[in-house]
């Protein structure tokens, strides 16, 4: 029997997670299947685009069938198909788009392409039913570090962005330098718990006065220079202390910039999203700082911080409600701008 609620099937293949979710009425997650490729890419120390695309092709239909089965639904119950259109790895995006378009054509259902960063922000709606625009969003991930003004469900304005490395990219590069496994963010978070963040202080880069942009290449280089200096001098290096010092410097900048943006734009609601939003020190420090300023902080659970289909489904639902469906000739855009 046809489900009476509005059903969205959502597909996310922007990088190395083959993810498919089923949602009811925009925010109610019925299933959220994530097929991770981390083990495959770990041996290379990072994501290999060709391998990621091939694995998406092998897994995406199976993930869709599993998501529908877990939701207790079938393909005929779908009202809308959402899919990540960009940014991301172009080959990976094309697999998700081709799959979504095939489903939409065969089932005669509307399709909506969504922005990956916008979808990350929309993850905040899933567990916080009371959350609604306007608010400020902090997006911290492997490819993005943005402060965004969210004026409406489909009204986004980027206030600040990284000028070089995204924060997750900096974590991965520092982890590799320290000999830690991929992905670097969780590895540094784990190792840093046994370190002293003041033992090896690294520079905090704030750029110009009142700038909401980010720069993490300097602290990354600072870690590399420190390690080279100590090793050439024959001195022992504490991996835990270096990880803790690096992580603290990054968190301090992110928190300070977020509070500055809230003050400048007089916002009392902040949504944190993206893979690095799962970092334990960042979550703790930002929550305490927001509490002191009277700012309500909304953080998705860690499983909703990483790439997933549920966040795509929420974004697709709200885009469809305001702008309608896309044509079947929608394409992938690896550098799709936000806003």
Which tags fit this structure?
339 residues; alpha/beta; Nucleotidyltransferase, domain 5; 10 strands
Please tell me about this protein's structure.
This protein is α/β, with parallel strands linked by helices and 339 residues long. The protein folds into 2 domains: 7-123 and 308-323, Nucleotidyltransferase, domain 5 (2-Layer Sandwich), CATH 3.30.420; 134-300, ATPase, nucleotide binding domain (Nucleotidyltransferase, domain 5, 2-Layer Sandwich), CATH 3.30.420. It contains 12 helices and 10 strands. Strand 6 and strand 7 (145-152) form a beta hairpin. Helix 6 (167-177) runs parallel beside helix 8 and helix 7 crosses helix 9. The chain is globular. The mean pLDDT is 96.
CATH class of the largest domain: Alpha Beta
Distance between the termini: 39 Å
- How can the largest sheet be summarized? 5 strands, mixed
Give the % helix.
Answer: 40-55%
Poorly predicted residue ranges: none
| Mean pLDDT over all positions | 96
Number of helices: 12
Beta-strand percent range: 15-25%
In CATH terms, the superfamily of the largest domain is ATPase, nucleotide binding domain
**What is the architecture of the largest domain at the second tier of CATH?**
2-Layer Sandwich
What's the overall geometry? globular
């Amino acid at each position: 029997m046809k489900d009476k609620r509005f059903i969205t099937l959502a597909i996310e293949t922007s990088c190395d997670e083959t993810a498919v979710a089923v949602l009811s009425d925009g925010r109610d997650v019925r299933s959220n299947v994530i097929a991770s490729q981390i083990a495959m890419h770990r041996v290379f120390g990072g994501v290999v685009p060709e391998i990621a695309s091939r694995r998406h092709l092998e897994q995406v239909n199976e993930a869709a069938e599993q998501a529908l089965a877990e939701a207790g639904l079938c393909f005929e119950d779908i009202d809308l198909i959402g899919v990540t259109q960009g940014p991301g790895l172009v080959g990976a995006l094309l697999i998700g788009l081709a799959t979504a378009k095939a489903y939409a054509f065969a089932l005669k259902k509307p399709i909506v392409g969504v922005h990956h960063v916008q979808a990350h922000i929309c993850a905040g709606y899933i567990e916080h039913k009371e959350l609604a625009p306007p608010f400020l969003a902090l997006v911290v991930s492997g490819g993005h570090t943005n402060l965004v003004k969210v004026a409406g469900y489909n009204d986004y304005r980027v206030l600040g962005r990284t000028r070089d490395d995204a924060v997750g990219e900096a974590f991965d590069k520092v982890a590799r330098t320290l000999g830690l496994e991929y992905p670097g963010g969780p590895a540094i978070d784990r190792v840093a718990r046994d370190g002293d963040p003041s033992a090896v202080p690294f520079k905090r880069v704030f750029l110009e006065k009142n700038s909401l942009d980010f720069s993490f290449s300097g602290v990354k280089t600072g870690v590399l220079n420190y390690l080279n200096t100590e090793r050439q001098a024959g001195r022992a290096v504490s991996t835990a202390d270096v990880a803790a010092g690096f992580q603290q410097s990054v968190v301090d900048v992110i928190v300070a910039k977020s509070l500055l943006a809230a003050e400048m734009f007089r916002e009392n609601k902040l949504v944190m999203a993206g893979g690095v939003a799962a970092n334990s020190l960042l979550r703790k420090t930002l929550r305490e700082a927001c509490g002191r300023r009277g700012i309500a902080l909304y953080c998705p659970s860690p499983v909703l911080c990483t790439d997933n289909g549920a966040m795509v489904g929420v974004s697709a639902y709200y885009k469809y409600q305001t702008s309608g469906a896309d044509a079947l000739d929608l394409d992938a855009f690896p550098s799709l701008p936000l806003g």
